[in-house]
Amino acid sequence: MNELKGMGVALITPFDAQGNVDHEALKRVVQHQLDNGTDYLVVLGTTAESATLSAAEKKEVISTIVETNVGKLPLVIGIGGNNTRVILEEIASTGLDPFTAILSVSPAYSKPTQEGIYQHFKAIVTSTEKPIVLYNVPGRTASNMSVDTVVRLANDFDNIVGIKEAAGDLPAAMKMIQRTPDDFLVISGDDMIANAMTLAGGAGVISVIGQTLAKDFSEMIRLALAGEVKASYNLHYKVADSIDLIFEQGNPAGIKNMYEHMDICQQHLRLPLVPVDEDLSDRIKSFLNRTYLKS
């Protein structure tokens, strides 16, 4: 799965002022990735506000991204949730040909045991021949996938090819790297420790900040994969302040605000999410002016 080494981005879904999907803005978002070094695109992940999209809207979003990408970058589709049966139905009803893999988030809200998490992913992986990337994000799911569960899944199923590890726990990520098969991809889902995880033997990142600051963040990951410690950290520290900013009032509110300052899309969200406040917006704009727009 070398296509999934490097910097993937968790694409947003732009909306217009009436709350409809803004497909022209989505095309600009995808084109920004094509022009600035992104290695692969994640479609309909949690950053895409996929929980608030209808089935019809999801199909339209997929169509716009596939048509704009025109096969240039590998695509990963997010299909996950806390109802295993519904996930299996969605996988069966989704046209998966354009996609290299499925990114599937560990169940939220239900707070399953580690055995429940294992059986959930066993059901998913045995329902499809598509490669599966696990997604551990306990800050959203209220349930952490243990290292033992990840190692067990990685060893038991050949088409579980990696994990997006977003617990923000570098020691746990290092244990995953150490204990999983050599070809298993441990991908950072936390932008702040993406460089460290990659230098420790990880496969890169599925990033949020990387979709706006794509050129520097993708280069940082390429340098880290090559073992260029100093050069990769120089770029990490250039970007680092913006990572704190975009997550301060939630994702994707922060990254959409940054996109608006870059004139790529507007910052509209769907409730219950709301835009960042004026103070944070000013600080995001100041970062861009100071670091990028006037450099």
Q: Which short descriptors sum up this protein?
A:
single chain, 295 residues, alpha/beta, TIM Barrel, 8-stranded parallel beta sheet, 8 strands
Protein model, in words:
This protein is of the alpha/beta class and 295 residues long. It has a single domain, classed as TIM Barrel (Alpha-Beta Barrel). It contains twelve helices and eight strands. It has helices at residues 23-35, 55-69, 84-93, 114-125, 138-141, 147-156, 170-179, 194-199, 214-225, 229-247, 253-261, 278-293; strands at residues 6-10, 40-43, 75-78, 101-105, 132-136, 160-165, 185-188, 204-207. Helix 1 (23-35) runs parallel beside helix 2 and helix 4 runs parallel beside helix 6. It is globular and about 50 Å long. The relative contact order is 0.14.
Chart the SSEs and their pairings.
Layout: E1 6-10, H1 23-35, E2 40-43, H2 55-69, E3 75-78, H3 84-93, E4 101-105, H4 114-125, E5 132-136, H5 138-141, H6 147-156, E6 160-165, H7 170-179, E7 185-188, H8 194-199, E8 204-207, H9 214-225, H10 229-247, H11 253-261, H12 278-293
Parallel strand pairs: 1-2, 1-8, 2-3, 3-4, 4-5, 5-6, 6-7
> Could you give the order of the helices and strands?
EHEHEHEHEHHEHEHEHHHH
Broad structural category = alpha/beta
Q: Provide the CATH architecture.
A: Alpha-Beta Barrel
Oligomer: single chain
The structural domain count equals 1
Average pLDDT figure: 97
